[in-house]
Batch of 3 targets.
Target 1
Amino acid sequence: MSTQTASNSPITNRRRGTIQRWSRTLIPTLREAPAEAVNPSHRLMLRAGCIRQVGAGVYEFLPLGMRVLQKVSQIVREEMDAAGSAEMLMPAIVPLELYADTKRDVEYGDLLFRLTDRHGRGAALGPTHEETVTEMAKGSVSSYKQLPLNVYQIQTKFRDEFRPRAGLLRGREFLMKDAYSFHLSVEGEGGLNETYDRMYQAYVNVFTRCGLDFTVVEAEAGPIGGSASHEFMVNADTGEDTIMVCPATGYAANVEKCEIGERTWSFDKSAPAELTKKHTPGMPGIDLVAEHLGVKPEQMLKTIVFQKVGGEKRKYVLATVRGDHDVNEGKVRDTFGFPVEIADEKEAKEAGFAIGYVSPKMVERRDDTLLVIDPDATAGTWATGADEKDHHVTGFSWSRDLDAELPEQGKQSGRIRVGDIRNAVTGDPSPRNASAKLEAKRGIEVGHIFKLGTKYADAFKFIILDEKQKKQTVIMGCYGIGVSRTVASSVEMSHDDSGIVWPIPIAPYHVIITVMDPDKDEHAKVAADLSEKLADEGVDVIIDDRKERPGVKFKDADLIGIPVRITIGDKALADESVEFKLRTDDGKGRLVEIAHVVQETLSKLSNA
């Protein structure tokens, strides 16, 4: 999907703007941030007095931060309503028995905040609400005529992060919008696909209206299969996620999902080096082994052992990639068409796999084992595991050292195959344009939509009769937006050395009127008159009426990131003017006649 860059509109609806005085609100700006605040949004939001830390990963939203949070929430709410979703509110406390059939209390592990009430009943602080909403829908929907149904909430969520970091980006308490849809079909009118497409567009609208520079990326498919998942990523150099993009076509996907274009491959017939076993004790990781063997990581083979999920008979899959590449579990699954997971280490060792030292030759030794090889791991002579603890071999040749029949390009079947099974990297061929190369950029996930399938409906036995009076399991979709995370991501995306540069639509105030001498009646009168006229046009205004030095006021105005600064001082007033400056302008502002200030402000806010 292509990158989206928003158009900035200052006002989301024609309401009267807010007027606030700095002296009557709480904006505790700081000259320096705490040492542990490393990333820009954490550092700047603390310094700008938007948030205050209460405990590890737990923050108060002070008035400036709360205004941004409310603006993002309101945009989300309006777009969800427009997309046909109905707002509700579920409890933060989730009884543990709701997790009995989904086992998510086990899957979440220590991330789940657990508590016990005075009667000894177990509960959790909800990290998400799939179980709660499914139980609600099962108890409320009794006819196919009530479907499709789409509900959402904006609710505080909790995850007991071991090391909360990066401020609002990875906290233990956060505000999230989560929506859930219920259907009897995937295709057709009222089907999951129809709602999914509508929610996709709603998300594009949300992040565009928030003024964010974002990319929609294909993500790992859901249980129904197909292209069933998309993530919405704010483009930021400090982002913790890698996005792979094709510059020629706009194709974008996260690393777990990104396809790699066609690669030619073959197995060399010659074997110039002898197969030699070498002792490699106490060397965790490819780099140490490669150094010891006198080769580069890209000259080694890395073989990961997977096992089939489900079914009565145990089956293993060996996935072999080049030593400097990473195996992609989803792609391994797609190669053979059944779900897989990393093999249980104890069981795999009992089955004869020397975990950490496995070679592709294990496919010959077990009839219940399949092998898939990445194209980049075919031609050449390799170092690989020796299927013996603390030992590797050098000089491995596929054609000489593997007795099983090897596939040829265009002719594949049987237990050994070649396929795209690794994470994409910069420079890989694009899957959408043969002449283009994939590029990597950084992003922060702020939204995720996916087709949930029947996992939770199955767990809760949520079955209703369709119009033909046949029993059908309800199909679900799930759609999340990190509201507080969106606030932080906007700062990661837009800041400079002086402070935050808020996108106009979600800025806490659109205009700051800096009064040089609040004790002078003329200064105060012009500030009051301008703020009233701007508010009448839907502009939010804060008046800096503090008795502080001009330099302090100017630095604070830049730090808190208000888009427009209007300065009222004697020199400008002598010319019946004020100083007008955009937050994004370098240097000093320019004089604008008082009679034209409102018009100039609206023009700049609309076109910035």
Target 2
Amino acid sequence: MIRSLCHRLARPSIFLAALLSVCACSDEQSAPPPELSLREKIAQKIMLDIRYYCADGSPDQAGECRQPVTRLPQDLRRLIADSGLGGVILFADNLENSAQIVRLNDALQSAAADARHGIPLLIAVDQEGGRVTRLPRAESVAFAGNMAIGATHASHGDAFARSTAAAMARQLKLLGFNVNFAPTLDVNSNPDNPVINVRSYSEDPRVVADLGAASVSAFQAENIAATVKHFPGHGDTAVDSHTGLPRVERSLQRARAVDLLPFAEVIARSAPALTMTAHIQYPALDDSTLQTVDGEQIPVPATLSRAILTDLLRGELGYRGVVVTDALDMAGISNYFSPTDAVLHTFAAGADIAVMPIKIRYPQQLRDLQTLIDHVADAVEAGELSLAELDRSVARVRALKRQYVDRAWIERGARDNIRLARQALASPDDAELASALAGAALSPIFPVEPGVLPVVDRATRRIRVIAPSVEVGEAFKLALARVTESEVRVVTPENALAAQAQGHADVLLVASIVPQENAVERGGMDDLAGLRRPRLDTGALYDIYRKALLGARERGSKTVFISMRSPYEAAQFRDIADLQIASYDYKAYIDRDGALHGPIYGALARALTSAEVPPGILPVTVHAAMERAALP
């Protein structure tokens, strides 16, 4: 208690100066921390989300709690202090602006300081860039994601991987985060992968290794603990582990040559602070089975596999950092195992931190954390879990905190941290970097025929854009208005054919975002029910695109197909679009004044008015999809 009090007093304050001279708050003067109890050790191995909390609600009420935690409720403050919780992960719902983020993270660390042992929290976030971006775009610069960086590798090497990771790390550090669940090292070798896709750097494992190693080094040089994921490799899957349990059918030789290679290389070259597990079955790496909550025997998921997490990752690859699970509430685990069994199995397998094993949304659920800790403690006391292994695991977690928790940030206080964060997030250098990456990444998917470029020139009078959403359409209008005086009309896919029948356009742009957004893009399992349902299925959507492109060509219009997410789909339109471009990104923010903050749209507008071929090199093979996606 005295140590906790001194910690809270050790912030700049004139009237407390005399008290500070009395308190033994420095590392040199303070008494050694108390020995952790068994339950405190287990708590250090748990990371919860505090995405939503309804202090006046009940789990029995209709509907789920959807009240975002932007200020730390007293209930959750006490939970952290009383349990000695090890970590927290925040989502976009928790993050409104820099001042609020700093105050929330400051309150979280203050609650941790009130625990008996006073060990600070790991505060994590998924800030990958591109599709998975949690910081508020109204204030922070957002960067295109991994596949965009992969498209620059041939010309720029690892420059963009390093520079964007360093910029994101500086943003996160000044906001009070110490862990980023990035970068993704999955090799996207399956064109039908719904959850990795453009989150991957490339289909080439050596490119993934080069860019991943650079990213890890840059994050950690800025004192943000990087996390490589999803071990042993989620790239060759066609199922999203948020909704099911994917299975990878590779030989052991192929596993080592593709999926494992980036992890082995990055571990050896950059020593990532954390490695995140994948909720996938990979029989070539572990063909044992595990009994589910329904009594069924299934191939063991990697997250729960000792052969994968201990024998392979630690033993063969020599990994010495912290092993953290992917969210345990995802269907790939929660559909098959109870929260307690999932935690027991993953700890037995060798995981150091269990992420989101339970939800705490209402006061009645607060006791669930202690119940979970008690179950794990019972397993240790019964010899079902090794106490020696648990102690080594806790030592790894505490070593991680000693290295990456920014004590200066904690002691500086919210006011100064808010000022510094605002300055950092407004960096013009970051905005220039985001624009440079967007422009360097734009990739022609197929060779560009002579005479196509520039698509938009002085003779262009009318441009029609088929946009998948109002937001995307408005972003295109604003970006094109900067580079051309041509009339720009935006239509939805449902209205595209009718609009075409009503009038001619000199240029038709088809902007496609397929596959649709999924849970990881929004946040996690809480978002499944709220995902936007496409008004048209993919087949119907592509049929409209084909008819519109063919009709425009018959009228002498130039035609452009822009893959704003997965470039594989462009194979379906190769013969009916003059230009196919991969942008790998579609996110933008339009502020209250109507100004566009979306580097990818500016880059596209410049590319369409340029005689130069876009410079990016496609980091995945699209023609492999041609036979399957052949036009009728």
Target 3
Amino acid sequence: MTAHQSDLIASDIEAYLHEHEHKSLLRFITCGSVDDGKSTLIGRLLYESQMVFEDQLAALHVDSKTAGTQGGELDLALLVDGLAAEREQGITIDVAYRFFSTEKRKFIVADTPGHEQYTRNMVTGASTADLAIILVDARKGVLTQTRRHSFLVSLLGIRKIVLAVNKIDAVDYSEEVVAAIDADYRAFAAGIGLHDITTIPTSALKGDNVLVSSANTPWYDGPTLLGHLEVVENDSALQAGPFRMPVQWVSRPDLDFRGFAGQIAGGIVRPGDQVRVLPSGRVSTVARIVTMDGDLDEAVALQSVTLTLTDEVDISRGDVLAAADDAPAVADQFDATIIWMGEQDLRPGRPYLLKIGARTVTATVGTPDHKVDVNTMEQQPATTLSLNEIGACRVSLDRAVPFDPYTTNRDMGGFILIDRLTNNTVGAGLLQSAVRRADNVHWQATDVDKAAHGVLKGQKPCVLWFTGVPSSGKSTVANLVEKQLHAQGRHTYLLDGDNIRHGLSKDLGFTPEDRVENIRRVGEVARLMVDAGLIVLVTLVSPYKAERDLVRNRLDEGEFFEIFVDAPLAVVQERDPKGLYKRAQRGEAVGVTGVDSPYEAPENPELRLPTAELSPEAASAKVLSMLTDVGIVTA
């Protein structure tokens, strides 16, 4: 079989480049259990396809003697396993992407790790793949990790499977062994929705049935691995589906041109087609399909283009252009499957950033309905998700977004979760459906709003959020502030953290998840009181910056004042009016902020009160002065 090398390279380089540019592209992954030969198989494909440069080959010979696992012989796995830890242990840890091509097709292959602890890496590699090669060691058969990776492949929407029964040289090229593994795997795969399976007996080490049919398997009359990869059809469902294009950029090179650039996520578009802009719902008509090489008569899924419209429509990055007569749904609450990738557990109720397409919004994730044991496929009860765990969760957004179910369109239904503080990706999600009850919940307009309530009371409503470690003086200062405001005739309410625990949050403990939910509840009550025109004083430890920011973001500009009641740990331990720190030191109390639970101090509070230096009266005077300065009350 002729590989990437072509006579056109020497005779007509432009013709070669044109031919190469227009080859179809297949993205695939290799996965399976540890030491099934995934890296060796990819190395074999690269080596036999003549995609290894001379200096790489020379280095491979040297590395094979020092870090190889083949007794000094050429170890093709080292072409892929590049990390030092991978070479030391002889395993794959990170996802390795490699490109190669033949005369018929271009390929991007992801070598994904086999260890359970690197499941998130495997998910990353599978998220963009069209096909999965599931390797099974002929000596061991279908293992737990084989099932785990097959389940993840199915979950991520890959439907074309190559079952590579590898290391058949180690079982004397037995037809019976391959047939038994094939039957075992198909019985399992049918239960998770995998039916398009091609079984190929291979030896990545020896090269049997990888590029050339092996004389050692006369009983096998199917394709070689590369032969199958060259002709397998790419899933055309995207082009057959309705038109979708998330807008990634609004192009305004001059006053006479306004185009909307992005990669088409589904369907076909032509000039003259009507499109709907989501989430606004406005309808317009495609005028031109613009590319660097000139205008097109049509564009299809996965092409990157710029569209111009016949009307002046307000469109921003993150909006979606869709077929006017077959537009996606728009919703702000979803049922989703989440694959957790964060080192810290999921905290239900905590705000995360959610990125779907080109749009980033704030999201909260509810307590999982269940998590899936990827070894047995059983659903288990769960209160959170840990690293590499998969669960079904309710996701709520701060605004509605257009979407398709992940099973219909991966680009329109897939999302990632990002930690707001570290900016790390902590989860990958698959939208299943909108929460239908959200369709029946709408904002009811009222004529008497919070501004009217505030005018009647002669004040501007707001929230004074007192935060600090226990015994720092929050309640003492807030109580003095409310007394003085009440004496002035102001309308106030004090939501004290301890008092809240007797009613509104009686069912909550002091786990990180319960703390998040407590703050969410208090924040929602405070927001309702602001709508009633009140000055609301809240005294909560509220140790996490993300939750304090969540409350701030639920209010209008100028309505939230973070007051940091700052006292050193030594001072609050000496005060300890409730004996909390003493109980913690005796081991009788756990989850005490400042002892065995963290406190994230405000970085830029509206007011800082160093209560080790200020008396309660002096601290309350500073709060009242601030309220006058910003116009909440008049002197």
